[in-house]
Design a protein that fits this description.
The chain has four helices and five strands. With about 120 residues, it is of the alpha+beta class. The chain has a single domain, classed as Alpha-Beta Complex (Maf protein). The radius of gyration is 16 Å and the shape is elongated.
């Protein structure tokens, strides 16, 4: 079994999935023009054991105006995403740069998943 979960870290704050549209707007406003970290924890369990890893990726957002944030939130896309954005969707237009694994920002580091699956003898 493979399980993973992702959070966004802005300074000392952890941004999970927004509870409502107002919280999504607040999250995106706080990320505007700033760099944050995306952390994805991953665990694999198999008959022979358990392996766990956490990957961190730095993401820089460009400055965004309130109108574009509100329009994006109205799409509904941010509502089930940590930090209220999706790197493989409309949220990609806010990203200025990524340092690290883009697949980690999407919620599952392919490189880490492959390494853990290899350790479990699946690959």
């Amino acid at each position: 079994m493979l399980a993973a979960d992702t959070v966004v870290i802005l300074g000392s704050r952890i941004l999970n999935k927004p509870r409502d549209r107002a919280e999504a707007i607040t999250m995106l406003k706080s990320l505007s023009g700033r760099t944050h970290k995306v952390a994805t924890g991953m665990t694999i369990c198999w008959d022979g054991g358990v392996a766990t890893n956490v990957d961190y990726t730095s993401v820089r957002f460009r400055r965004m105006d309130e109108g574009e944030i509100v329009r994006y939130v109205k799409t509904g896309e941010p509502m089930d995403k940590a930090g209220a954005y999706h790197v493989e969707g409309g949220g990609a237009c806010f990203i200025e740069s990524i340092e690290g694994s883009p697949s980690n920002v999407a919620g599952l580091s392919v490189t880490t998943a492959r390494r853990l699956l290899k350790r479990a003898g699946v690959l």
